[in-house]
Amino acid sequence: MDSGKFLMVEAEETRKRKPSDLIKRGYSETEVDSMYSLGRHFLECGHFKRAEIIFKGLNFIVPEYAPAWLGTCAVCSTKKEYELALNAASKAFQADPKSAEAEIYLACSLISVKDFNAAGTYLGEIAEKIDAGIIVKPDLIRFFRTQLVRYQEAMK
Questions:
Q1: In the prediction, which pLDDT does 70 show?
Q2: What is the largest CA-CA distance in the chain?
Q3: What is the CB neighbour count within 10 angstroms for residue 117?
Q4: pTM of the full structure
């Protein structure tokens, strides 16, 4: 990711799951959110390997937990493993198709692997959501604009 600050989903903003989704794995909602918060803390502090271990563990334990996939995407992007980042962003978007963060990370990852047609499609959809007032978080809008500039520069 080109941004110095990682845009992540707050644990309390995550999609609610049925208790049975977590009971079968042995972890409560609170435990999963706490593990995610720890991984996010490591990511923000630059401890990428520690963050990666936590996020990949969450991906295995709770594969429908989109924030962990976004964390994995961020870690892979910092390591310049763009195909893995794209895979993680795709899984985050599949897990939560309404997530603006997942859609922006997906567009960012598509730009990184030079799939400009798909990236342009997602960037257009994101722009429409911003114009419609669906996406209002200033940090997400700034991140979108950064990715739009990356896209425009790549298309020159």
A1: 97
A2: 51
A3: 7
A4: 0.83
